[in-house]
Specification:
Layout lengths: L2 H6 L1 H8 L4 E3 L4 E2 L10 E3 H23 L8 H20 L7 H17 L7 H8 L17 H34 L7 H38 L3 H37 L4
Antiparallel strand pairs: 1-2, 1-3
Helix pairs in contact: 3-5, 4-5, 5-9, 7-8, 7-9, 8-9
């Protein structure tokens, strides 16, 4: 069992690891678990980890692009080319217009969500051990390393996708065509009020389902790791190792689903009904 779980009990251990490192801008002070925070509160751990892993992916791809050769590629270049071809193939299958913007967007979403999800494979108490080594009290140190287990992250990404859908709908159909669809699809102009309600539900459900699907899966996976960490050490690895292997599939699948749904939603925005 984790030393922290033994000290404070499993419930307190889980509550501690589910708490973010927060900074309240209104009070200009830290805002920890159990304290009342204002609306203007930043989750510092989410911002730091998401920016860091995103930057590392950009750096890796930039280095491989600089050293890319037309001959036999190295392992790194081959891996990059496989990912690029895979994502471009998925976009090509769904969207039949120009992929100049959509393919890079899909690649960015897939890789960024994947690396943020992959932080769930780090040991739960890693950052606590680092804090203790630096002289901080691990019981007073809060840091959640999985940005996609923070609903703010998933909603920020899904709302961005939602705005892109609105933008392309207006760009392709014009304001008149976009408005007309709201009142005439799917039952024709005689059911305009009902069509409007259905259209609102359809559009609003997209960012909500997109955000909650990713958040729910990653939050549940993180919670399972915490429950396993509460078991005696000689039992924990029996559950932890298989769950970590299975979680690799979940991490990849959730990144793939978020990417594909983004492409599908933007592709639908280009269609005329």
């Amino acid at each position: 069992m984790s030393a922290e779980a033994q000290t404070g009990g499993l419930t307190q251990y889980i509550q501690h690891h589910l708490s973010h490192n927060r900074w309240d801008l209104a009070r200009d002070a830290a805002c920890h678990a159990g304290e009342k925070c204002s609306f203007w509160t930043l989750h510092l751990d989410t911002l730091i980890v998401s920016s860091l892993v995103g930057g590392l992916v950009l750096l890796f791809f930039w280095l491989k692009a600089r050293k890319a050769t037309a001959g036999v590629p190295g392992k790194g270049q081959a891996a990059v080319e496989i990912v690029l071809e895979f994502v471009d193939g998925q976009v090509k299958d769904v969207f039949h217009g120009s992929r100049t913007f959509l393919a890079p967007l899909a690649l960015t979403i897939f890789l960024w969500v994947f690396v943020m999800n992959a932080m769930d494979l780090l040991p739960l108490d890693l950052f606590g051990f680092i804090a203790a080594a630096l002289g901080a009290d691990p019981h007073e140190f809060y840091f959640r390393a999985v940005p996609t287990a923070d609903v703010n992250t998933t909603f920020a990404m899904s709302i961005t996708v939602f705005f892109l859908v609105i933008f392309y709908s207006l760009k392709v159909k014009g304001l008149g065509g976009f408005t007309k669809e709201f009142f005439t699809v799917p039952f024709g102009p005689w059911m305009a009020p009902f069509n409007f309600i259905l259209s609102c539900v359809e559009y609003l459900s997209k960012p909500v389902s997109l955000a909650m699907r990713l958040f729910g899966n990653m939050y549940a996976g993180e919670l399972v790791f915490m429950l396993i960490a509460g078991l005696p050490w000689y039992v924990a690895w029996l559950g932890g190792a298989p769950w970590a292997l299975f979680h690799i599939l979940i991490i990849t699948l959730q990144a793939f689903i978020f990417m594909v749904l983004t492409v599908v939603y933007i592709s639908m925005a280009h269609e005329h009904h």
